[in-house]
Write a sequence for this structure.
């Protein structure tokens, strides 16, 4: 506070003029670095020291304790709410935080040092968690206020998903051999099937979804999904595949919580008896045939500006305001919105040997008129090298009012198997009406072999008229 009092009024005015706004001219970020006291407690030690905590009687941490851990969860898709999950070499635990969109500052793979003094260990559903003591709360604990959490949880370096690897298991029953070693850790179950694969969805509109997955040994576990998750309405995949998530435990019952739709991967697309809804059996395996995260650059995409005002030097551009980066489109400059039509186009993707294919991506839309969310942000596909384009309509759009990335959900490309395709993200704006579109994690998966589909869709011109 003393420092703030010494800042002159002219300096404050200049800072206000150039206040941080999520745009291209944002200053380069300095990699966060923790310079405080060394860690002096592990998650396992924290659990042991506070074993007497109960739901009604939490234990307040009164001594100076520093915990070093890595974040494994993400609230990006809305399936995890006001919680983060952290782990170290000794264990994992949940932390209650009173904030949405925590992942924008504390992403998966972020190393943090938490000053535990003044926080508490409480119990919910028979399991310990880190929270804050609140005498006004009927349950004696509450989520840690965002301001306090940011003071307590200091980042060290940039967070990246590759910083944390899941425990890979092909036998679900393994987790019962030593529950403390697995609970609340990031795990991946391989070779599993959904009981309602190809028929059910992850969650209904008005309640949590609970779907069973079964491994090749006959063991099962519940996959629990919030109806607020961006992928709640996605159809459960068929066949065998891999599921990654936070392995929770509630009153002695295991449950797996997915972070995003990307935690479901490599499903074969056919059931155990062989055959899909049409009675046809794909003969090959499902694999990723194209992937571009945009984490560090534009990748294998080209940009075509059909319409761009002379006042603009670009519409689509790689941005790394967050780490990792993404592609970003905007026709807003110097408080003015300009008309534009700019395309971000993939390289050629070969589906000639595929029997089915799926497109997924993550995107965010903000700073505009929500009326134009769908009409000004178009995803199209071409199988004639860009001569004609067909709009893809069956995917999830963001709300258009914040920076939250949401998953598109699985977009069926089976109509285009047997062809070589290109994917395009078309950004449009009007004079006086523009917003910002951010795209990342573009992926096309395909089942190689089997029967192929036919043509279909609505054809649009490659160069729309103004």
């Amino acid at each position: 506070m003393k420092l703030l009092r010494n800042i002159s009024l002219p300096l404050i005015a200049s800072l206000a003029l150039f206040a941080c706004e999520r745009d291209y001219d944002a200053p380069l970020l300095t990699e966060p670095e923790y310079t405080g006291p060394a860690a002096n407690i592990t998650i396992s030690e924290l659990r042991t020291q506070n074993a007497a905590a109960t739901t009604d009687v939490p234990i307040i941490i009164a001594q100076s304790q520093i915990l070093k851990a890595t974040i494994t969860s993400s609230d990006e898709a809305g399936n995890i709410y006001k919680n983060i999950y952290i782990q170290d070499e000794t264990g994992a635990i949940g932390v209650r935080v009173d904030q949405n969109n925590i992942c924008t500052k504390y992403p998966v793979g972020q190393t943090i040092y938490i000053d535990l003094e003044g926080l508490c260990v409480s119990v919910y559903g028979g399991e310990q968690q880190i929270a804050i003591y609140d005498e006004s709360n009927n349950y004696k604990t509450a989520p840690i206020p965002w301001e306090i959490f940011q003071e307590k949880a200091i980042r060290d370096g940039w967070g990246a998903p590759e910083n944390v690897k899941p425990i890979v298991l092909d036998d679900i029953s393994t987790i019962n051999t030593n529950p403390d070693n697995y609970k609340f850790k990031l795990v991946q179950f391989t070779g599993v099937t959904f009981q309602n694969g190809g028929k059910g969805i992850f969650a209904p509109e008005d309640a949590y979804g609970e779907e069973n997955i079964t491994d090749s040994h006959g063991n099962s576990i519940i996959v629990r999904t919030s109806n607020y998750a961006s992928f709640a309405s996605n159809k459960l995949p068929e066949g065998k595949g891999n599921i990654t998530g936070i392995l929770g435990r509630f009153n002695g019952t295991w449950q797996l919580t997915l972070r995003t739709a990307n935690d479901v991967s490599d499903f074969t697309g056919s059931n155990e008896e062989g055959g899909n809804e049409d009675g046809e059996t794909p003969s090959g395996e499902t694999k990723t045939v194209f992937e571009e995260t945009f984490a560090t650059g534009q990748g294998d995409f080209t940009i075509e500006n059909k319409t761009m005002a002379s006042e603009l030097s670009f519409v689509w551009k790689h941005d790394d305001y967050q780490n990792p980066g993404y592609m970003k489109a905007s026709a807003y400059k110097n408080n003015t919105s300009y008309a534009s039509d700019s395309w971000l186009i993939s390289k050629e993707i070969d589906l000639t040997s595929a029997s089915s294919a799926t497109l997924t991506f993550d995107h965010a839309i903000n700073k505009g008129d929500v009326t134009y969310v769908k009409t000004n942000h178009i995803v199209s596909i071409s199988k004639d090298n860009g001569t004609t384009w067909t709009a893809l309509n069956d995917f999830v759009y963001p709300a258009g009012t914040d920076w939250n990335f949401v998953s598109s959900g699985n977009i069926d490309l089976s109509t285009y198997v047997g062809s070589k395709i290109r994917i395009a993200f078309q950004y449009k704006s009007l004079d006086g009406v523009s917003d910002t579109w951010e795209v990342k994690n573009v992926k096309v998966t395909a089942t190689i072999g089997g029967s192929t589909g036919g043509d279909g869709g609505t054809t649009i011109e490659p160069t729309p008229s103004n």
Summary: Helices lie at 2-5, 9-17, 43-49, 146-152, 179-182. Residues 1-28, 272-282, 451-466 have pLDDT under 50 and may be disordered. The chain has three domains: 32-163, 167-265, 286-460. The chain has five helices and 33 strands.
